[in-house]
Amino acid sequence: MQCIRCYREIPDKSLYCNFCGKRQTSAPAPSRKHSRRPNGSGSVYKLPGSRRRPWAAVRDGVYIGYYPTKCEALTALERLSGRELRDSYNYTVEQVHACWRAEHFPTLTAKGQEMYRTAWRRVQTLKDRKMREIRTADYQRIINDTEDAGLSLSSANKVKQLASQLSKWPMREDIITTNYAQFVRLYGDAPEERESFTDEEIAALEAHAEIEAVKLILILIYTGLRIGELFKLPRDAVDLEQGYLIGGSKTKAGKERTVPILTPARPHIQYFYDRGHPGERLVAGYTGNRTAENFRGRDYVRTLEELGIRPLTPHSTRHTFASLAVRAKIQPEILRRVIGHANYSTTVEIYAHSNPEELVAEMEKLTNYLQVKKGSSE
């Protein structure tokens, strides 16, 4: 027989030409057979158009998700083998919160309900995410932001409690299998070692002190204030003439404490003090983001990046202050009093009655240390 394309002689009854490869019949080519999935095990199909994740996995009328490859979609179905699925499988965090709240709130006191409402204001940053996609890192990020905002340990603990409650409800409903909130660490549980700014990094900040965001970072380093404490600090709480300010939050030991204004911090505090008015916050004259969270996520991070400084957290400024004070041989009980730590010993409780003049005089050791260090590096 002859090939219908190239007309060369080929063996009789050939399906394809062994010269040009042309199929020798008009009948459709045999289709590849795919093994049929068992009934009730779900199905996978490809969506039309150009998509990053074109393969959809569906079971019992519930969309499991969308995946880059067919293999990944099939794997997702296999993971759910034997589990009952309902529409709640795709619930968002906000939907889970609504269901949990309808069940749980009637059992709480008015105070308990208000505490959970406050915690939800922080957790609701995840509200549009699917509950089954939330992991420990998502909750931990909220806890870390709570710390950097200067909120109390009890506030962070309530956020963790809410996250745990929001995980238990979908576990009962077979939406998730693990309570990832249980692995969250509170900053008061077992404080991890925090890095501090190096002398070179502090020098780099000082070299660009004309930048307002840098001024705020240096104030944090030279006062030991938490970022939330600085952004809430009233201008009227600053006494430049006497050389100290009254501020602080979070714990009983940290509230309304006396914080000496060291010489290196004075020009930066003076800058914002002069730009403000009585009754305002000290940072009212700042032209950037005036809330701790916005400053942390935008100006602070961007400023360090532009100056080529490691992306340390705002709380590292507080650790830097403490490290510098230790190197300057500040009395431990005075240092704890200034930074507002709650783990007072009997000696520190006695120092709780120290007057501002004693605190300022002792902390001037740090000013002298910084001046000597700066002179030796020049």
Task: Describe, in plain words, how this protein is organized in 3D.
This protein has helices at 70-79, 93-104, 110-123, 136-148, 153-172, 199-206, 212-223, 227-232, 266-275, 292-306, 315-327, 332-339, 346-351, 356-377, and strands at 43-46, 55-59, 62-67, 238-239, 244-247, 257-260. By secondary structure, the protein is mainly alpha-helical. A 3-stranded antiparallel sheet has the order 1-2-3, covered by helices on one side. Strands 4-5-6 form a 3-stranded antiparallel sheet. Helix 2 packs across helix 5 and helix 4 runs antiparallel to helix 5.
Mean pLDDT: 81
| Structure summary, number of beta strands | 6
Largest sheet: 3 strands, antiparallel
Q: Could you give the distance between the termini?
A: 96 Å
- The low-confidence runs, each spanning 5 or more residues with pLDDT under 50, are 250-254, 343-354
The Rg value, from CA coordinates, equals: 32 Å
How would you describe the oligomerization state of the chains in this entry? single chain
Side-by-side strand order of the widest sheet:
1-2-3
Helical content band: 40-55%
Give the count of helical stretches. 14
Overall morphology: elongated
